[in-house]
Amino acid sequence: MCNRRGWNRRRNRYIKYNAANALRRIMIAEVPTVAIEKINLYQNTSIIADEVLVHRMGLVPLAIDPRLLEEKLHEEEYNERNHVKFMLNVKCEYKIVGNKKELVNEVVYAH
User: Fold this and answer.
1) Phi, psi torsion values for 67, nearest 5 degrees
2) pTM attached to this predicted model
3) Where are the domains of the chain?
Protein backbone atom coordinates (compact mmCIF):
# COMPACT_ATOMS: atom_id res chain seq x y z
CA MET A 1 0.00 0.00 0.00
CA CYS A 2 2.93 2.36 -0.30
CA ASN A 3 4.83 3.75 -3.23
CA ARG A 4 8.54 4.37 -3.66
CA ARG A 5 8.53 7.92 -2.29
CA GLY A 6 7.61 6.89 1.26
CA TRP A 7 3.94 7.74 1.06
CA ASN A 8 1.45 5.47 2.76
CA ARG A 9 -2.11 5.17 1.49
CA ARG A 10 -4.78 4.39 4.10
CA ARG A 11 -8.48 4.96 3.41
CA ASN A 12 -7.73 7.14 0.38
CA ARG A 13 -5.53 9.50 2.41
CA TYR A 14 -1.83 9.94 1.96
CA ILE A 15 0.62 10.61 4.79
CA LYS A 16 4.42 10.57 4.89
CA TYR A 17 6.01 7.98 7.19
CA ASN A 18 7.97 10.57 9.15
CA ALA A 19 4.80 12.61 9.77
CA ALA A 20 2.95 9.50 10.96
CA ASN A 21 5.87 8.64 13.26
CA ALA A 22 5.88 12.19 14.67
CA LEU A 23 2.16 11.95 15.42
CA ARG A 24 2.68 8.56 17.08
CA ARG A 25 5.47 9.96 19.29
CA ILE A 26 3.35 12.96 20.28
CA MET A 27 0.42 10.74 21.24
CA ILE A 28 2.65 8.43 23.30
CA ALA A 29 4.26 11.42 25.06
CA GLU A 30 0.88 12.81 26.08
CA VAL A 31 -0.23 9.64 27.89
CA PRO A 32 0.57 10.07 31.60
CA THR A 33 2.62 7.21 33.04
CA VAL A 34 4.47 6.41 36.26
CA ALA A 35 8.08 5.31 35.93
CA ILE A 36 11.12 4.87 38.14
CA GLU A 37 13.04 8.09 38.67
CA LYS A 38 15.44 7.46 41.57
CA ILE A 39 17.18 4.15 42.30
CA ASN A 40 19.39 3.21 45.21
CA LEU A 41 21.49 0.29 44.02
CA TYR A 42 23.29 -1.45 46.87
CA GLN A 43 24.93 -4.48 45.29
CA ASN A 44 24.83 -5.54 41.66
CA THR A 45 26.44 -8.91 40.98
CA SER A 46 24.89 -9.38 37.54
CA ILE A 47 26.70 -9.18 34.23
CA ILE A 48 24.84 -5.94 33.43
CA ALA A 49 26.62 -2.71 34.36
CA ASP A 50 25.04 -0.56 37.07
CA GLU A 51 24.31 2.37 34.76
CA VAL A 52 22.70 0.17 32.11
CA LEU A 53 20.57 -1.65 34.69
CA VAL A 54 19.35 1.59 36.26
CA HIS A 55 18.59 3.09 32.83
CA ARG A 56 16.59 0.03 31.76
CA MET A 57 14.62 0.02 35.00
CA GLY A 58 13.75 3.66 34.42
CA LEU A 59 12.28 2.85 31.01
CA VAL A 60 9.75 0.39 32.43
CA PRO A 61 6.32 2.01 32.98
CA LEU A 62 4.65 0.97 36.23
CA ALA A 63 1.02 -0.18 36.32
CA ILE A 64 -0.04 2.64 38.66
CA ASP A 65 -2.73 5.21 37.96
CA PRO A 66 -0.86 8.56 37.74
CA ARG A 67 -3.91 10.39 39.07
CA LEU A 68 -3.33 8.76 42.47
CA LEU A 69 0.04 10.52 42.88
CA GLU A 70 0.94 14.18 43.14
CA GLU A 71 3.90 15.57 41.25
CA LYS A 72 6.90 16.12 43.52
CA LEU A 73 8.36 19.60 43.45
CA HIS A 74 12.14 20.09 43.61
CA GLU A 75 12.25 21.38 47.18
CA GLU A 76 9.55 19.02 48.46
CA GLU A 77 10.35 15.96 50.55
CA TYR A 78 9.27 12.45 49.57
CA ASN A 79 6.00 11.40 51.21
CA GLU A 80 3.15 8.94 50.67
CA ARG A 81 1.36 11.28 48.23
CA ASN A 82 4.20 11.78 45.75
CA HIS A 83 6.21 8.56 45.57
CA VAL A 84 6.01 4.78 45.58
CA LYS A 85 8.73 2.60 47.10
CA PHE A 86 9.67 -0.80 45.69
CA MET A 87 12.30 -3.25 46.81
CA LEU A 88 13.80 -5.73 44.37
CA ASN A 89 15.85 -8.55 45.84
CA VAL A 90 17.09 -11.01 43.22
CA LYS A 91 20.02 -13.37 43.58
CA CYS A 92 21.93 -15.09 40.81
CA GLU A 93 22.86 -18.57 41.97
CA TYR A 94 25.45 -21.01 40.64
CA LYS A 95 25.68 -24.77 40.81
CA ILE A 96 28.95 -26.65 40.51
CA VAL A 97 28.99 -29.30 37.79
CA GLY A 98 32.34 -31.07 37.64
CA ASN A 99 34.99 -28.36 37.58
CA LYS A 100 32.71 -25.61 36.24
CA LYS A 101 30.27 -23.17 37.80
CA GLU A 102 26.98 -22.99 35.89
CA LEU A 103 24.15 -20.54 36.40
CA VAL A 104 21.03 -22.02 37.93
CA ASN A 105 18.92 -19.48 36.05
CA GLU A 106 20.95 -19.51 32.83
CA VAL A 107 17.82 -19.01 30.73
CA VAL A 108 17.84 -15.39 31.94
CA TYR A 109 21.30 -14.83 30.49
CA ALA A 110 20.73 -16.70 27.20
CA HIS A 111 21.36 -14.61 24.09
Assistant:
1) -70, -15
2) 0.56
3) 1-31, 32-111
